[in-house]
Amino acid sequence: MNAFPFSDTDRIVYTGPPPKSAEVVIIGGGIIGITTAIYLAQQNVSVVVLEKGRVAAEQSSRNWGWIRKQGRDEDELPIMIEAARLWQQLVQECGEDIGLRQTGVTYLASSDKEMAQFDAFTKLAAAHGMDTRMLDAGEVPLLISTISGAFKGAMITPSDMRAEPSLAVPALARLARDKGVAIVENCAARTLEMAAGSIAGVWSEQGYIATSSVVLAGGAWSSLFLRKHGITIPQLSVKATVVATQPMPEFHAGAAAEKHLAFRRRLDGGYTLAPAGSHRLYLGPDAFRHAAKYVPAIKDDPLGTRYALWAPAGYPDSWGTPRDWTPDIPSPFESMRVLNPEPDAADLRTIERRFKQLFPQLEDVHFQKSWAGMIDLMPDAVPIVDWVPTHPGLVVATGMSGHGFGIGPGMGRVISDMIQGNETGHNLHRFRFSRFTDGSPIRLGTSL
Fold it and tell me: 33 lies in a domain?
């Protein structure tokens, strides 16, 4: 049932070749890379996006499709509020229906502890002018028809949105191309070129590109690329499984989650389902190297992660994946054009069982397709968005920790202004590169 629409055999849409030079080279054709390119191009900055496989073929099209302010880390909230506005603007510009709908996000509470957490976030949301509010137990079945289960109440942000990830980023890539961005698929960035202590260019598998600015937005592959250049970040990747049902009568128009299951109405009339807070970590060299930094996260949610002894061949943290190469030979990024993990069988069973428990009256529900994706994580569940001090001219924008799709346009606009030396309009201290090496304690992001 692994029928995800992207694969390494898909037709190449953006064939290149890349230009010989550009003001900015972006490594990675996901939501962060593409939106950054859009905002740079709007300021007449020449940009090339290098994508080792296909645009949005990895996590940017495999996520739940939630565009939420609700439950965000306090330092992400201002950027996310901006991102929500930018999503609406971008959809108008691209003129395509990507399924963007303002149908709200709801979190269901089964305990007094969860209700207290929701109440605390509601107060934070109010300080940011959001429309988040609490619901009591009697309001839950009025919002989500036919749901069963003893819920204490819920938290809802009606202005939050949903969209179809597999439609959204490809549509934005077409918008970027129309604005003059050079996108090259099936073209891995192999190494950086330094001169006089700063970025001078990028060696790609299709040749050298001279540039003074590089944005690394490589998702699960970012740590591997950086390590080749002597740069270490404590990034890991975990596998999450998702399914899509066949079209069915609507029982909820938006996105919602309870302790065991998350669900979202789809543009095709079905629902996207996923186990809430469940993922699998493949134990590789980086997992052991950075284990100490993840202790706070493990203590906070000891049952959320399941472990596997080794990653399949070719994965970023597989034991056999090369950690060193030269620009004149194929890199690990060319060995696996699209990271397309198999859905987890245990998660599929959990999804089916819990969905039937929540909606027992829905008969003959069929899963049309299932897929999995590798989510790039940081120990505190917030990204790195910063210049690399040892490599002037290099910006790292990675570790979106499952939050990248919704906040993508906001981060893209911020990174664009960083590159141009403009004020970003936001306090980015929380996302600094040095926070894992300057002695700062790990401060976990909001785990809602």
Answer: yes
Angstrom distance (rounded) from CA 79 to CA 69: 9
Same domain, 116 and 84: no
Q: How many CA atoms lie within 13 A of 444 on its CB side?
A: 13
Rounded CA-CA distance 50/189 in Å is 7
Euclidean distance between CA atoms 153 and 107, whole angstroms:
9
| C-alpha dihedral (58, 61, 63, 66), degrees to nearest 10 | 150
Are 135 and 267 within one domain?
no
- Tokens 């284990």 belong to 291
DSSP state letter for 305:
E
> Rounded CA gap, 122 and 71, in Å?
9
| Contact between residue 388 and residue 394 where contact means Cβ atoms under 8 Å apart | yes
Considering the domain architecture, whether residues 148 and 284 belong to the same structural domain is answered as: no
1 assigned to some structural domain: no
Residues in the chain, total: 448
Total domains, the chain: 2
User: 430 CB contacts (<8 Å, ≥6 apart)?
Assistant: 73, 75, 76, 382
Which residue segment(s) compose the domain that 385 sits in? 24-104+159-436
For every one of its 448 residues, what pLDDT tens digit does the chain have, with 9 covering 90 and above? 444 555 556 678 999 899 999 999 999 999 999 999 999 999 999 999 999 999 999 999 999 999 999 999 999 999 999 999 999 999 999 999 999 999 999 999 999 999 999 999 999 999 999 999 999 999 999 999 999 989 999 999 999 999 999 999 999 999 999 999 999 999 999 999 999 999 999 999 999 999 999 999 999 999 999 999 999 999 999 999 999 999 999 999 999 999 999 999 999 999 999 999 788 999 999 999 999 999 998 888 866 788 988 899 999 999 999 999 999 999 999 999 999 999 999 999 999 999 999 999 998 889 999 999 999 999 999 999 999 999 999 999 999 988 899 999 999 999 999 999 999 999 999 999 999 999 999 999 875 6
Question: CA dist 362 to 48, 106, 202, Å?
Answer: 48, 21, 54
Total Cβ atoms within 10 A of residue 167: 18
- Nearest Cα to 67, choosing from 109, 101, 37? 101
375 lies in the same domain as 317: yes
Does 279 share its domain with 357? Answer: yes
Distance CA 401, CA 72 (A): 11
pTM reported for the whole predicted model: 0.96
